[in-house]
Design brief:
Layout (H helix, E strand, L loop, with lengths): L1 H4 L2 H11 L5 H7 L4 H13 L3 E7 L4 E6 L1 H4 L2 H14 L9 E4 L4 E3 L1 E5 L11 E5 L5 H4 L21 H7 L2 H11 L5 H8 L3 H13 L3 E4 L2 E4 L1 H4 L2 H14 L8 E5 L8 E5 L11 E4 L1
Antiparallel strand pairs: 1-2, 3-4, 3-11, 5-10, 6-9, 7-8
Helix pairs in contact: 6-13
Length: about 280
């Protein structure tokens, strides 16, 4: 999951696909991306199964890139990122637009709710346990997430700057997950994750500098800003467990304490309480 989502261009290309872009020229016109990077990312998205390359013209042959169900189902992750960056990251060149829910015709914020009981859920109401395929060791990718080549620098987007400090680095994402399940001390992070001390120190400093963690008395605790990343983590985890399923079963088991059922996240509108659909969410500048 981190190998696919830990790249800002991937997220932005999927975002534009959800907004209707299918052709190379449309992506190039909508994003500040070089042709070399765009070609590389479209190829990667096709290889990863998020887009399907289909012929729409014979002479000369021309292709378009159409979202697969795997790519389309990323809309909750993108919606969660949009909301977090809009509320907690002020350093955007242009302020991110508000969200508009077509079903109730209102500006809204997405809420994380339980499919079984429709209640709004925070991390405090979930019980988390490893599943049959789960462990810290197994859940860490063998290599760092996909990095931008040096040639990407001319076309960097920077539209999800702080999200990428989390999703774009395997140790940062794992640290945040560990913090949500109660880990607070350096040695405990190191023991659970198996991260090199230098990498662990660097990521803890980065998350602290970004206001996601607070360091007091040798312990690291989630700030309000850090806790607000919970919908991003949950929607990304849910997407990963759907599309990268292990034969023996899920890696992580979640249970909603209030209703006692296995937890499946649903994003809902805070104005009408209706479950959101990707097609019913639009931006309003």
């Amino acid at each position: 999951m981190l190998g696919v989502l830990g790249d800002e261009w991937t997220l932005l290309l999927v975002q534009q696909s959800l907004l209707g872009a299918t052709r190379y020229g449309e992506f190039a016109a909508r994003l500040p991306i070089s042709h070399a990077v765009l070609t590389k990312r479209l190829t990667a998205l096709t290889t990863d199964g998020l887009l399907e390359r289909t012929l729409y013209q014979q002479r000369p042959p021309r292709y378009e890139y159409v979202l697969t169900p795997k790519g389309r189902s990323l809309w909750p992750v993108l919606t969660a990122i949009w909301e977090w960056e809009r509320r907690w990251v002020p350093d955007h060149a242009e302020r991110l637009p508000t969200m508009h829910h077509l079903s109730c015709d209102a500006e809204f914020a997405p809420q994380l709710t339980c499919r079984a009981c429709d209640q709004v859920v925070t991390e405090k109401e979930l019980t988390v346990a490893w599943g049959p395929s789960g462990s810290w060791k197994r859940s860490m990718p063998a290599e760092s997430t996909r990095r931008r080549a040096t040639s990407d620098a001319a076309g960097r987007a920077g539209l999800f700057p702080e999200t990428m400090t989390i999703l774009g680095n395997r140790w940062a994402f794992a640290l945040l997950v560990a913090a949500f399940v109660g880990t607070t001390r350096f040695n405990d992070f190191a023991g659970q994750l198996g991260a090199p001390p230098g990498s662990l120190t660097d990521r803890l400093q980065s998350l602290t500098a970004g206001g996601v963690l607070d360091a007091v008395g040798g312990r690291y605790a989630l700030t309000e800003k850090g806790r607000a990343t919970f919908p991003i983590l949950i929607t990304a985890l849910q997407w990963a467990q759907r599309w990268f399923a292990a034969p023996e079963g899920p890696a992580v088991l979640l249970r909603h304490q209030s209703c006692g059922d296995a937890f499946e996240a649903v994003l809902s509108c805070d104005q009408c309480a209706g479950a959101l659909r990707g097609a019913d969410v639009e931006d309003r500048h």
